[in-house]
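WARN no homologs supplied; continuing
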Amino acid sequence: MRLGFIGTGTITAHMVRGLKASALADWPIVLSARNEAVAAALALLPGVTVAARNQAVVEACDLLILAVRPQVAKAVIGRLVIPPSRPVISLIAGLHIATVADWTGAQDICRAIPLPFVERHQGVTPVFPPQPAAMQIFAALGTALPVDDLAAYDAYAAASALMGSYFGLLETAAGWMVAQGHSAPDAAQYLRGLFGSLGDVLREKPVSFEQLREDHSTKGGLNEMIFYRFVQGGGSDAMQAALTAAFRRVQG
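OK structure emitted
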């Protein structure tokens, strides 16, 4: 199957590199030249070419992937003419399927939320609705999660926005350690090792998050104390409020 990408930003780069190291490596890929530097670098991979125009990408592919920023989506994809039978995967946050269909004429459309980890064939990608071709692609890039309900899909999109907060927590902890006299490299090395290992625990132990928290919190100990201070200080409420705000935003 020939894949076409409109938009050559970070996620497109991760997907293309992941696909070229997957069971679908022999599938040809044609890119738009929207980001010339990224497109040129990806074109060094076998079977990857760059089209002169966006419409040429549409005409050269069997499946089209829309990966442009929401702010410019209408200006970019609103000019495309997509055959109704052409499968389309939209990675554009907050853009509803009906809108994509109205702007382009496409009819076989799904939405997906791939994250950078697809390059390493890790992570879980929600697909709504579970279009067969999209499920095949994201299964090759890790785990494809079929979603039949729009509200559930939007909740996955909101939860995916926790990545910045995760690293922000580490940024805060590192800053605190430096204030206590540690060097920045030493603080970073310690926290990378700690949280990297906790990521391994998440993958290896499929138990509830509550159970994991209790397993890593001695009764009356420091882990328990910091978590309860976090909750009592409004941390949990602030996180839920932020997720709700993200959920409403992705709902459009």
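The mean pLDDT is 95.
OK
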